[in-house]
Specification:
Elements (H helix, E strand, L loop, with lengths): L6 H12 L5 E2 L14 E7 L12 E6 L1 H12 L3 E10 L2 E4 L7
Parallel strand pairs: 1-3
Antiparallel strand pairs: 2-3, 2-4, 4-5
Length: about 100
């Protein structure tokens, strides 16, 4: 392991080396992930110009409170977004709903 690099930098380098797409929104090691009120992480596609976040065609990651997650579900119901992946967040740890769908 290289010295002088944070775990976030190492993860970012590994992501780029794997060819995984860069997501708009929160970085995987964003401080919001570790906020005591954060309970959800979602990856979603923005389908509409009317979406409350992002631009049509973007794929985004957000760390959300329970209230924020309710708003994200409402945006999906309106056809503005499509949630592709969801994880529950506990003290910064992610527990994905579907182990085979980790993006």
């Amino acid at each position: 392991m290289e010295t002088g690099k944070t775990i976030g930098q190492l993860i970012d380098e590994a992501r780029r080396a794997s060819g995984a797409p860069t997501l708009a929104g929160h970085d995987i090691m964003d401080l919001m992930r570790f906020d005591e009120n954060t309970r959800h992480m979602i990856v979603f596609d923005v389908l509409s110009h009317d979406s409350p976040v992002g631009f049509k065609g973007e794929r985004m990651r957000l760390f959300l409170t329970d209230e924020g997650y309710k708003k994200a579900l409402a945006a999906q119901e309106k056809g503005q977004t499509k949630i592709l992946n969801h994880a529950k967040v506990f003290s910064g740890h992610l527990r994905y709903d579907h182990k085979d769908r980790v993006l």
